[in-house]
Amino acid sequence: MKFYKEAKAKELSQNTRIFAEVREIIERVGKHGDIAVADYNVKFGGAPAASFRVPQSELERAYDEISPELRGAIERAAANIKKFAELQRDSLWPLGEVEVEEGVFLGHSVIPVDSCCCYVPGGNHPLFSTALMLVIPAKAAGVPRVCAAVPPMRGSVLPHPATLAALKAAGADEVYAVGGAQAIAAFACGTETIAPVAMIVGPGNKYVTEAKRQVYGKVGIDFIAGPSEVLVIADDSASPTVAAADILAQSEHDCDAAGILVTTSERLARETEAEVTRQLADLDTAETAAKSWEENGRIIIADSLAEAADIANEIAPEHLEVNVKEPFELMGLLRNYGSLFIGEGSAEVFGDYVAGTNHTLPTMGAARYTGGLSVMNFLKVCTFQHITPQGAAKLAPDAETMAAEEGLTAHAKAAAARIRKI
Prior knowledge:
By secondary structure, the protein is of the alpha/beta class. The protein folds into three domains: 16-94 and 115-221, Rossmann fold (3-Layer(aba) Sandwich), CATH 3.40.50.1980; 227-371, Nitrogenase molybdenum iron protein domain (Rossmann fold, 3-Layer(aba) Sandwich); 388-416, no CATH class. 45% of the residues lie in helices and 17% in strands. The longest helix is centred in the N-terminal third of the chain and has 23 residues, at 68-90.
C-alpha cells in the first residue's frame, strides 16, 4: 500500500466554544421557550414570525407551484423510499409467547415511538431530499406524531418551497420553521407552542450536531453525524471520469467533506486525479469542492483488492462504492460502511435521491458499530414475560440464590414470595 495523495493533517481537539454556545442556547430555550427560539431565528437570518408552525396551506401551495419535473422526481423518490421502508419494517416481526421452559413464556412486541422531530438542514442548499429520507420511514414505522424542523430562508419566515413540497409528499404531521441548535432544544425541552418529542433525527451543521449530543438522554437520537464521505474501491476496469465525478459529488457538500479513492491501479490513480482537476473547471461549487479535495481528499494504491477491502473496513466510510470488474466477489470482505454501492452503475448520488435506500448515514468511522437511519430507528423491540405459578416455582430458587449472592436481599425475598411466605 502507498499513498498517491494524502489529506492534510487535522487538529483533533474538541471545540469548546461550540460546546459552550450550544449549552447556552439549550438553557435559554429551556428557560424562556418561544421568546428565545424567536430571538435565535432572527439572529441567524430568519424574519420575525407570529408563529413557527407552517400552515398546511403553505405546504400545499409549495407542492402545487414547484415544476412538474421536480414534483415528479420527488414523488418517484418518495415511492421508492416508502416501499423500501415498508419492506424493512415487515422484516421485523413481533414474537408471540414462546415457552422456553415449563410455565415460562417469553416474547417481544414491536412498538413505534410516540413522536419524533425530523431535522431537515437548510444551510447553503435546500436539502429537501432529507425531508423524504427522515419523514417517510417514521411514517412507515407508524409514529403517531411526525414533526419536521426546517430553518427559514434568509430574510423569510418560511423554509425553501422545495423542502415544503417534499414534506407535503412525505406526509409530515407538523412542520416548523425553526433551525439550528434552538430547534433541537425546542423539541427536546418543549416550548409554549412546540410540544416535546421522544426522538430527534437528521443531519445538521456543527451546532445542530452538538445540540443533539447534549440533549441525548432527554430524547433519543439517531446518531452523531459529521462531514460527508465517499470511498471508491476501483481496479483497472473502472472509469476515472466516474470516480472523479463521485469524489466531487461528496466534496461539494462542504469544506470538511472527504473523497477517497482506493485502487489497485496506479494508472487509474493518475487519471482520476487529472479528471478531478478537469471537472472542477466546470463546477459551480468548485470553490468548496476544490478546498475539500485539497485538504481531505486521498488516493491510496493498494497491492490487491483484498488489501483495498481491509483499508475500507479500517476507514468505515459513510458511502462505499465498489467499482471493480467482479464487485460481488469483494462483498464478502466488506464489513464497515454506511451504505454499499455495488458496481459502477450504482452511483452514490442515486442513493442520495431516488433509489430508495436512506442517505442519512454514519460518518467519522461510526459505521464500525452502526448502520444508517431506517424505519428500525423508530421502532422499539420491547420484551415481555408471562410466568405461570408452576413456572415461578421452578425459577424462584435459582433467582433467590443469585440475588442473595449479589447481596440484594429484597430481590431474594421477591423471588421467595412466589413460593412461600416471607
